[in-house]
């Protein structure tokens, strides 16, 4: 942990989240992984009782009014029990609440935020569809206006909380003739309006989160449930990249940390050739590599949190969030693999939870935008940033710091 960066209040929050994670029974974790628990309502309800849901939601709506720098501290600790705990916690308390706080009307905030923060109601975000995940604007879920209502038809899949949630943040195409900036509308849809859960996925890992196919068949949604403006989901989608991708990256650290801790402890007990295996560099160097990866991940996450909290340039934040999601999830995946390698064959069994951690972490590089999409965004923002620097001459042009820098007949680009 980076305790040296934390204030006294943040350390207290860290300890609250850590105590909460320790309170979850071992059997509960195992039952989720065995799909005996379909959606962790009891876990979320306990978080609500401890006022740990919606940390960044303003206090007047039931949250704590904190910042991302605080949120990621709690996310790491909550995910120690398993990546799916952070997924369900983050979707309802970070993702859906983000849309309401930034784009909801006063009436919507008062209606939906307090029950979410108290965990009296649970929320899910509905974005991915059978014909597209990262192709957000290719949505085939249609919202047709009918007087003061909208009729929703279509389906979403791989929705964490699809089984078990009460509220659904749904993106639907309301202007089929429009472009990316004016074709989609965001709705808050309540299950009682006719939302159906038709299929619960059998997942490799991250089980027990109610990941389901969610179906809308002539679901009537009143106009007052539009989040933002009609045909105005574009800015909401871009705002949501932060909690979706930044939160996903930050919580991965907590999910990977136990693998390193287990492998470290194992290496000080397991003996081979007359001594504990941590005395062999082939083992201890893997531990050192894993430690370095996690510390690097934390450094990037804390810097990104500060950028977002301080209102840094939106393009810079998009780049940091995107590169952070790719870098951190891939490094944490490596941490789990290194930990298993240290433990050898026993790490591949269910005697230790390293195999479960490995299964769970594979999701992190896929959901809320694949890591290839993160690279696409990162390179786009970086090239744009570099063009601005060259145009405004804000930095030294290092290209010319060489002996033959002005040999124009050598610099041929076509």
Topology (SSEs and partners):
Layout: H1 8-23, H2 26-33, H3 41-49, H4 68-78, H5 83-103, H6 106-117, E1 123-126, E2 142-146, E3 149-159, E4 167-173, E5 184-190, E6 196-200, E7 212-222, E8 226-227, H7 234-267, E9 271-272, E10 275-276, H8 281-309, H9 314-343, H10 354-361, H11 371-392
Parallel strand pairs: 1-4
Antiparallel strand pairs: 2-3, 3-7, 4-5, 5-8, 6-7, 9-10
Helix pairs in contact: 1-4, 4-7, 5-6, 5-7, 7-8, 7-9, 7-10, 8-9, 9-10, 9-11
Provide a quick synopsis of the model.
The protein is an alpha+beta fold and 414 residues long. It has helices at 8-23, 26-33, 41-49, 68-78, 83-103, 106-117, 234-267, 281-309, 314-343, 354-361, 371-392; strands spanning 123-126, 142-146, 149-159, 167-173, 184-190, 196-200, 212-222, 226-227, 271-272, 275-276. Helix 7 (234-267) packs antiparallel against helix 10.
Order of helices and strands: HHHHHHEEEEEEEEHEEHHHH
Flag low-confidence runs: none
How many structural domains are formed by the residues? Answer: 3
Q: What Rg is obtained from the alpha carbons, in whole angstroms? A: 23 Å
Can you name the CATH architecture of the largest domain?
Answer: Up-down Bundle
Strand order of the largest sheet: 1-4-5-8
Mean pLDDT: 93
CATH topology of the largest domain: Butyryl-CoA Dehydrogenase, subunit A, domain 3
Shape: globular
Percentage of residues in helical conformation: 40-55%
The DSSP helix count reads: 11
Number of strands: 10
CATH class of the largest domain: Mainly Alpha
Q: Main sheet, how many strands, which sense, barrel?
A: 4 strands, mixed
Give the end-to-end Cα distance, rounded to a whole number of Å.
51 Å
């Amino acid at each position: 942990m980076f305790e040296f960066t934390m204030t006294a209040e943040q350390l207290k929050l860290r300890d609250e989240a850590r105590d909460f994670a320790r309170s979850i029974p071992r059997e509960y974790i195992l039952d989720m992984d065995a799909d005996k628990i379909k959606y962790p309502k009891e876990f979320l309800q306990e978080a609500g009782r401890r006022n740990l849901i919606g940390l960044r939601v303003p206090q007047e709506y039931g949250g704590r009014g904190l910042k991302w720098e605080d949120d990621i501290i709690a996310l790491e600790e909550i995910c120690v029990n398993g990546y799916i705990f952070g997924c369900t916690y983050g979707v309802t308390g970070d993702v859906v609440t983000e849309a309401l706080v930034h784009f909801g009307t006063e009436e919507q905030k008062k209606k939906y935020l307090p029950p979410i923060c108290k965990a009296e109601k649970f929320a899910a975000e509905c974005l991915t569809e059978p014909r597209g995940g990262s192709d957000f604007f290719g949505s085939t879920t249609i919202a047709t206006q009918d007087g003061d209502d909208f009729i929703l038809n279509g389906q979403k899949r791989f929705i964490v909380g699809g089984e078990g949630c009460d509220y659904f943040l749904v993106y639907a195409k309301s202007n089929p003739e429009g472009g990316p900036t004016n074709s989609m509308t965001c709705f808050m849809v309540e299950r009682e309006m006719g939302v159906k859960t038709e299929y619960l996925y059998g997942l490799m890992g991250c089980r027990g989160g109610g990941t389901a196919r969610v179906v809308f068949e002539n679901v009537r949604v009143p106009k007052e449930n539009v989040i933002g403006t009609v045909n105005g989901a574009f800015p909401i989608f871009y705002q949501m990249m932060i909690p979706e991708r930044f939160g996903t990256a930050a919580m991965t650290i907590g999910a990977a940390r136990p693998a390193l801790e287990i492998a470290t402890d194992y290496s000080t007990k397991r003996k081979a050739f007359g001594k504990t295996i941590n005395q062999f560099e082939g083992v201890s160097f893997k531990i050192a590599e894993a430690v370095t990866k996690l510390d690097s991940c934390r450094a990037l996450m804390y810097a990104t949190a500060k950028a977002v909290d301080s209102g840094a340039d939106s393009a810079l934040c998009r780049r940091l969030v995107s590169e952070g999601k790719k870098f951190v999830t891939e490094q944490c995946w490596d941490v789990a693999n290194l930990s298993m390698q240290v433990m050898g064959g026993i790490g591949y069994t269910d005697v230790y939870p390293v195999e479960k951690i490995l299964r769970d972490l594979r999701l992190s590089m896929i959901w809320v935008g694949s890591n290839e999409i993160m690279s696409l965004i990162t390179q786009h923002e970086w090239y744009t940033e570099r063009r601005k620097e060259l145009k405004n001459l804000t930095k030294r042009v290092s290209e010319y710091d060489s002996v033959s820098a002005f040999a124009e007949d050598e610099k041929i680009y076509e």
